[in-house]
TrEMBL record:
<dbReference type="InterPro" id="IPR029058">
    <property type="entry name" value="AB_hydrolase_fold"/>
</dbReference>
<dbReference type="InterPro" id="IPR051411">
    <property type="entry name" value="Polyketide_trans_af380"/>
</dbReference>
<protein>
    <submittedName>
        <fullName>Uncharacterized protein YcjY</fullName>
    </submittedName>
</protein>
<comment type="similarity">
    <text>Belongs to the polyketide transferase af380 family.</text>
</comment>
Length: 314
């Protein structure tokens, strides 16, 4: 394909399905030139019209080609035959990312490929890069790489989540019908006040401001997004290998996070285990979700990522 400057709709194969993506291309694109390309990875449970639609134009404005896409079973990408929509399964996310790298590798104007993940996308990129050295550098923003201590801190709560997920999987297997739930206890109709009343963690307010019915990237603002998700998701999202394989990563990496964020431990413990060439950028004045969409936080992160990806490693 020969893209034009701006956003280009693309498809590429993964698990035999056509995943749908947006390829963001710099102004004044020249197909005879070579560009650095970025495969983007988004937070759970996002679609390409959320984080990728924010970071894609920003990275293109900084001279990069950026691919944001809907994972298998999400957004505009199909589920596999016999499966259901709204199913982000961790190991498939990694394999979808490998296939996205393969797709970028077919483009004659792509010179090198980098990975940029936000929130769960950080874990996806870090995990994919362990054995995919076609990805030359990785950057993670508000990343959930060291998720075990964060996700498994209260074993009683986790075991309740697992029990519900197990029951949902059995129900779907026997009925052949999807079983949709609210992983964050947030549905598409709640007001902010209703969600805060039941939310139960320090991030409920900022979570609603982004994902809620009236949020900047909620189901009204992004029509193909929903807060409902397949019921066995808890079995899948509790398995995270980002931190477990951190010492195996050889590519230069950059970790960006907020020191005050509820999720900061997911970056700091990951960094502690790294043995590669690594840079760390911690902010005092932004929250976890600020990096999703607030202009000053997005500018700070994308400026840093662009500088890191452009820096010579010779």
């Amino acid at each position: 394909m020969t893209p034009t400057s701006g956003k280009n709709k693309v498809t590429f194969k993964s698990f035999g399905a056509d995943l749908v993506g947006d390829l963001y291309v710099p102004e004044g694109f020249d197909e005879a030139k070579k560009y650095k390309a970025i495969v983007g990875a988004s937070p759970f449970p996002q679609v390409k019209d959320q984080i990728p639609a924010t970071y894609g134009p920003e990275m293109a404005a900084r001279g990069f080609i950026y691919l944001g896409f809907d994972y298998l079973g999400m957004g505009d990408s199909p589920a596999l035959p016999g499966e259901f929509k709204q199913s982000r399964y961790m190991f498939r996310l990694i394999e979808n990312t490998w296939d996205a790298v393969s797709y970028l590798g077919t483009l004659p104007f792509v010179e090198e490929i980098y990975g940029l993940g936000v929130c769960q996308g950080g874990s996806i990129i870090a995990s994919a890069a362990v054995t995919d050295h076609r990805i030359k550098k990785i950057a993670m923003v508000s990343g959930m790489m060291a998720a075990d201590d964060f996700q498994w801190a209260d074993r009683d709560v986790v075991n309740q989540q697992i029990a519900a997920s197990n029951a949902s999987m059995q129900k779907m297997y026997e009925s052949g019908e999807p079983d949709y739930v609210t992983p964050f206890l947030l549905n598409d109709e709640m007001t902010k006040e209703e969600f805060i009343e039941v939310g139960g963690n320090p991030m409920v307010g900022e979570t609603y401001d982004y994902y809620g019915r009236d949020g900047v990237k909620g189901p009204i603002a992004v029509p193909n997004y929903t807060n409902m998700h397949i019921g066995d998701q808890g079995m899948q999202s509790l398995i995270s290998i980002g931190q477990a394989y951190a010492d195996k990563i050889v590519q230069p990496s950059l970790t960006i996070y907020s020191k005050s964020a509820y999720t900061a431990i997911c970056s700091t413990q990951f960094v502690e285990k790294l043995t590669n060439e690594h840079e760390e950028l911690a902010f005092d004045d932004f929250s976890h979700v600020d990096f999703y969409y607030k202009p000053e936080a997005v500018k700070a992160s994308t400026d840093a990522v662009a500088a890191f990806f452009n820096r010579s490693t010779d």
